[in-house]
Amino acid sequence: MIVKDKNFIPYLNEEEIQKKIKKLASSINTDYKETKPLFIAILNGSFMFASDLFKEIKLECEISFMKLSSYSEMTSTNNIRELIGINENVFNRDVIIIEDIVDTGRTIKNVLDQFKDRGVKSVEVVSLLIKPEALINPVKIKYVGFEIPNKFVVGYGLDYDGFGRNSKSIYQLKS
Ligand code: IMP
Ligand code: MG
């Protein structure tokens, strides 16, 4: 598949992704029994994952969205901008952050610190993908879909410079 000027090859298919999402949801359903968690999906990348995961959550719960931006084309930058914030009062809530991918961990560290400062009861992260080799910030991701090598991926909501989000599977940059 070509996205803009780069070639990508199939990496994770729809079936693998959906199977993993059911597993992640099942763990969350068990761990959060008796609570009313607030899910916060980090836009744009996590919109498909958040939608599929949320459909599998059987708890009494809420969802809201935050829009952040740290990436320019293919590199993570230090400069994380909050483009849309959330209105919900998160004090004393059990918050679950939904991310598409944790790369350097900068974005998620920033988000976790913000929520801790706002007096949440608990905050955990569910990320479809994580690149352990790229991680430079010490963050604990409780629910991880797939650990992947440090190669750029697109599809299923993930983009290359805005393009390539519209697929049911995930593709890896051809090297
Ligand atoms: P971090 O702050 O370096 O962990 O970057 C996290 C964000 O960068 C993710 O939420 C994605 O939006 C984006 N990102 C990181 N790696 C990739 C990738 O391989 N493909 C597409 N987006 C990525
Ligand atoms: Mg993202």
How would you characterize the overall build of this protein?
The protein is an alpha/beta fold. The chain has three helices and ten strands; from the N terminus they run ββαβαβββαββββ. The model has no long low-confidence stretch (mean pLDDT 92). α1 (14-31) packs across α2. The chain is globular. The chain binds inosinic acid and magnesium ion.
Which residue ranges are poorly predicted, with pLDDT under 50 across at least 5 consecutive positions? none
Associated small molecules: inosinic acid, magnesium ion
Average pLDDT confidence is 92
Radius of gyration: 16 Å
Tell the overall outline. globular
- In N-to-C order, the SSE pattern is EEHEHEEEHEEEE
Helix/strand class: alpha/beta
In a nutshell, what does this entry contain?
The chain has 175 residues and is of the alpha/beta class. The protein has 3 helices and 10 strands.
Question: Which properties best describe this structure?
Answer:
175 residues; binds inosinic acid; alpha/beta; binds magnesium ion; single chain
Topology summary:
Elements: E1 2-3, E2 6-12, H1 14-31, E3 38-43, H2 47-55, E4 62-72, E5 75-84, E6 94-102, H3 106-117, E7 122-130, E8 143-147, E9 153-154, E10 170-173
Parallel strand pairs: 3-4, 3-6, 6-7, 7-8
Antiparallel strand pairs: 1-2, 2-10, 4-5, 9-10
Helix pairs in contact: 1-2
